[in-house]
Amino acid sequence: MADIEVPVLIVGSSLVGMSTALLLGHHGVPALAVEHHRGTAIHPRAAQITQRSMEILRVLGIEQIVRQKSDEQFVQDGAIMAVETLAGKELGYFIANLNEGVRDVSPCERVFISQSLLEPLLKTRAGELGAELRFATDLVSFDENGDHVRAVIRHRDTDQTDTVYARYMVAADGAHSRVRERLGIRTSGRGVFSRSVTIYFRADVRELLRGRNLSVIYVNHPELRGFFRIEKPFDSGFLAVNAIGDPANPITDVATGLTEERAMQWVRLALGSDEIPVTIENVMTWNAEANWAERYQRRRVFIAGDAAHAMPPNGGFGGNTGIQDAHNLAWKLAMVLRGEAGADLLDTYDAERRPIGTFTTEQAYSRYVTRTAPYLGTDGMQPVAPDLNIELGYRYDSPALCHDGDPGPLHENPRESRARVGTRAPHAWVTRDGERVSTLDLFGSRFVILGGANADSWTNAAFAACKATQAPRDVVVHQVGVGRFDDPEGALAASYDLTSNIVLVRPDGFVAWRSRTAAGSPSAVTGALSQALCKSLTVSES
Ligand SMILES: Cc1cc2nc3c(=O)[nH]c(=O)nc-3n(C[C@H](O)[C@H](O)[C@H](O)COP(=O)(O)OP(=O)(O)OC[C@H]3O[C@@H](n4cnc5c(N)ncnc54)[C@H](O)[C@@H]3O)c2cc1C
Questions:
Q1: Residue 61: DSSP 8-state
Q2: For the chain, what is the radius of gyration of the CA atoms?
Q3: Residue from 218, 349, 368, 396 carrying the catalytic annotation
Q4: Does 14 contact ligand 1 (Cβ within 6 A)?
Q5: Is any ligand 1 atom within 6 A of the Cβ of residue 53?
Q6: Residue 519: pLDDT over 70
Q7: Furthest CA-CA distance within the chain
Q8: Backbone torsion region of residue 159, taken as left when φ is above 0, otherwise alpha when ψ lies between -120 and 50, otherwise beta
Q9: Is 496 designated active site?
């Protein structure tokens, strides 16, 4: 038995735990993540990766390798649509081409890559950035003592137990989170509405695809409701089954007592062909549910990912929302651990992420009802919001954001946010040192101040404020037309409403503050930084 001291202990090292370890490593915090399983995901599960997640992976330096691997596994830019059977009638298209009409809002594209291929890439990068991932290791117990969390972990093979002393703990231990339970955090929502299965199969379906590029194929057959995902070279994939039998009064526990023979029948039924040889490789059971935690934090312990919000896969939001949780939390933990921000900054994780988690879970539920389970009825269901709003147009509200009155809608078209406080700072192509880069390439590690071409008064105020307070350590200021930073296409000025004003962007690429007056004021900049850091910055007299 050994004693281990770490700044952050992460429980669960699947998609979200590993992303947390990776993001903490990026911010210079070497975390320890423990994972019950012996390795990274063996089941594909999540595959639809949003532009926002890709933007985060871009900051972490793995966007290109993820794209490359995704192309090996799926044909990109496919459709999300519904059929009666794959061989039979098409019922409609929800999205005709995954990236059509969204390429202007981000330097990144939506991709399809399954968790089983993505997680090893995250793991390698997390290791490079100093994270330690221990597999076949369980969190056994934990308690909080003053300024740390004490946790007991046990290796499943050797039975060796170690005691970990961590300043903070992040539980990314999934929908059945024991940590959440142990913290007494309740969940609410719409409950479990199907005991579903995912049937992994091999079958050459090229002929049935008829040259169509289909990413997600909903099957709405009178006897079965679910969806297909097919991998290259179109001879394997999975069928998720949520309900069978009479569509008006279906059986929704499809998992109990499922035999291989029955699984085979369902795959054949959904394919709409008895002629193609089918082999069943595996069956995984899961709950289709829409539930969210009533809190994301208790003292030094945070919950993230499915532990905080369990949603049906319809829309492909679950894993992506968890990555966003990790992204929101990691820089805050890093700055608080270094003493650069006040501890209250950590409370803003719950304030900012919980409304988004609940909203996104509701949106996944609305897609479940409209795409798969109309028998659940639309009473009290949220209207389906555009995918782009959910992926890139969500807005935060917390005491660390300098809202000037009404913070605005919880979600909107990201093209309309115009760098308002609490929204994701928009993507615009600019030049830096003669190179064309996205504004998003300027963010990720530090606070950044962007100034318009006539913002000298405010950028001078920003320099004066940063010098006088010497905090945070490294605020970076870019002004259009100054140094080798420029906005040749006017894209930055237009998308940020930037002329003689400045915008303060946080390390997670969200806007914390915008100047409003004409004349720059160092004390206004100091005030904004103090609020964004939840720390009173003192101005030195010299
Ligand atoms: C069929 C299907 C398709 C999906 N498609 C998509 C999609 O396209 N896009 C998308 O974004 N999402 C999708 N999802 C959802 C996505 O898979 C989940 O949201 C995501 O996996 C959640 O990740 P997580 O890390 O929060 O939780 P999990 O993946 O559940 O991981 C939790 C981990 O914690 C570990 N753990 C638990 N307790 C302990 C303990 N005490 N000690 C150590 N380890 C512990 C577990 O072993 C587990 O590995 C899909 C889901 C399904 C079922």
A1: T
A2: 24
A3: 218
A4: yes
A5: no
A6: yes
A7: 84
A8: left
A9: no
